[in-house]
Amino acid sequence: MADTMKAARIHKYGKSGVLEVENCERPKPGPDEILVKVHTASLNPRDWLTMRGIYQMRRVVEPFPITLGSDFAGEVAELGGNVTGFAVGDLVCAMQPLRGKFGAFAEYVKVKASVAAKLLDGISSADAAAMPCAGMTSYQTLHDVAKVHPGEVVLVNGASGGVGVYAVQIAKAMGAKVVAVCGPNNMAFCQEMGADEVINYREDDFASREDAYDVVYDVIGRSSPKAVKKALKSGGRYITTIPGPGTAFAALTSYLLGFVWPFKRKSTHLILVKPYPHNLQAMMQLILDGKMKTIVDGHYALDDIEQAVARSQTWRARGKIIIDVS
Ligand SMILES: NC(=O)c1ccc[n+]([C@@H]2O[C@H](COP(=O)([O-])OP(=O)(O)OC[C@H]3O[C@@H](n4cnc5c(N)ncnc54)[C@H](OP(=O)(O)O)[C@@H]3O)[C@@H](O)[C@H]2O)c1
Which residue ranges make up each domain of the chain? Predict the structure, then answer.
């Protein structure tokens, strides 16, 4: 194994033109980490938000240069001294924890062994690299926060994007009736994914309906708890992925209210994805059972990472953007 590798790194924050694919030192795994030879990675908005410096706190834990990339799949190349349960050559995938280093847009990445999942037989590298951040966000929202019951009506706003495509399919697999909200070009696509009803956000405001949904999952953060309240049924749950001050306050208030009013009520939640390998395994099983498909917007080589970032920054991606590394 060479001591150097190719990686997509930034040396300063910026909107574009700051990402460089260059040679650098190969990382060495710490005692609780594994080193993975990356086969495939996938892009999430968090990667270019970091590039722009919006996750400024990262600079405290990780000085420049920063190798971007949160999600990846590949082959274990080296084990830290404390690691058990993995062997060199195992195929794995993972999402880097938010507080950890990123590093997946590179030929090698190190990651805590506790957040990595072994690939199930029949799962492709693209399936495994696509799902970590986007898939786990939707899996945790629908299973752990909303606790969706069969027959409930689940609305997904932003249904055609990276997080949304998993939300629609996971909600269907849980037996929900799914209402997908997307732009005009993605209506047929959302229907093909299994949505029972599709709303074109350019023509119809899903929040103007009354008593319509058990769960509103706003993947893209274009609504607010206040605007959606009357559209929720009694006991309805509003969940957003976007941690703005308004939604964070509403979610905290809703959480505290649960202690003094433990009865059926409408609630607000903010999801912050966590790196749970058992979620990755459960989603791999959904794929193997034919209940979920990986939706790929496009494949890019590591050398073309700038183009992949530019595509994601349009907010028009349909499904996941894949980076083919080796
Ligand atoms: N809190 C967390 O832990 C967490 C985890 C993961 C992601 N996120 C956040 O979740 C957001 C979505 O991520 P993503 O990966 O799904 O992004 P993405 O793939 O880039 O989203 C693109 C999709 O957004 C849709 N869209 C754009 N404007 C819309 C609108 N006004 N209404 C409805 N849909 C619209 C587009 O559909 P059309 O082309 O049909 O308009 C497109 O399919 C990001 O802000 C990300 O940072 C948060």
Answer: 4-131+294-324, 134-270
